[in-house]
Design goal:
By secondary structure, this protein is of the alpha+beta class. The protein has one domain. It is built from two helices and three strands; from the N terminus they run αβαββ. The chain has a three-stranded antiparallel β-sheet, covered by helices on one side. The radius of gyration is 14 Å and the shape is globular. The termini are far apart.
């Protein structure tokens, strides 16, 4: 059982139950711990704000189609 509250928030963000996740500077290390364990961590995109605030959104990776030659 994971007690990190950001684990659940990342899941909600991935499932589009929430559209963004705001992480304050004081909570960043706790967020980072949950983010590092998430299998789709590279799909969470952060936008830096003022005073260390970061707004994360989930962006599903687009599969590249192979071009036929």
């Amino acid at each position: 059982m994971n007690l990190n509250p950001y684990s659940e928030k990342l899941e909600k963000l991935q499932k589009n139950e929430i559209t963004e996740l705001i992480v304050e500077r004081v909570d960043f290390l706790l967020f980072r711990e949950a983010w590092l364990e998430h299998p789709e961590k590279m799909n969470f995109v952060g936008e830096a704000g003022l005073n260390g605030r970061i707004i994360y959104r989930y962006v599903k990776e687009q599969k590249k189609e192979k071009e036929s030659s």
